[in-house]
Amino acid sequence: MKPRRVPVCPRCDSNEDVKKIAYGRLPSDDPVELAQEGYVLGGCCIRPDSPEWYCDACEETFGTRRESWGEPLSDSIQ
Questions:
Q1: Residues 46-52: contacts with CB within 8 Å, 24+ apart?
Q2: Residues 1-43: tens digit of each pLDDT
Q3: Apex 64 CA angle, 1 and 44, nearest 5
Q4: Which domain holds residue 57?
Q5: Cα separation values, 57 from 32, 61, 76, Å
Q6: What is the pLDDT of residue 4?
Q7: Which of 3, 35, 56, 72 would staple 17 via disulfide (CB 3.0–4.6 Å)?
Q8: Is 59 within the bounds of a domain?
Q9: Angstrom distance (rounded) from CA 4 to CA 18
């Protein structure tokens, strides 16, 4: 994998323990390998407001994957 720029965590102001959140089809099926490559598992469902980064030091999630997919999503059932 090519190296990527890791942002600074907005809570603890560090990027030492920041990892990319992997959604959907993963680059590997082995969770240990994913952790070694700097990923944490995020599940299979991606919403417009799903975070992109996770800080292991302070457990903060931040950065959204997309600004907008159109109308805002609602959790209420109509």
A1: 47/73, 48/73, 49/73, 50/21, 50/23, 51/21, 52/20, 52/21
A2: 455 688 999 999 999 999 999 887 766 667 777 777 788 888 8
A3: 65
A4: 18-64
A5: 18, 11, 33
A6: 67
A7: 56
A8: yes
A9: 12
Q: In what order do the strands lie in the sheet with 61-64?
A: 39-41, 18-22, 51-55, 61-64
Check: pTM over 0.85? Answer yes or no.
no
From residue 60, how far is each of 8, 26, 34, 40, 50 by CA, in Å? 11, 21, 19, 12, 13
What is the Cα–Cα distance from 34 to 38, expressed in whole angstroms? 6
68: which 2 tokens? Answer: 């907008």
In total, how many domains does the chain have?
Answer: 1
pLDDT one-digit tens code per residue, 47-69: 878 899 999 999 999 987 655 55
CB atoms within 10 A of CB 59: 11
Does 40 fall in a domain?
A: yes
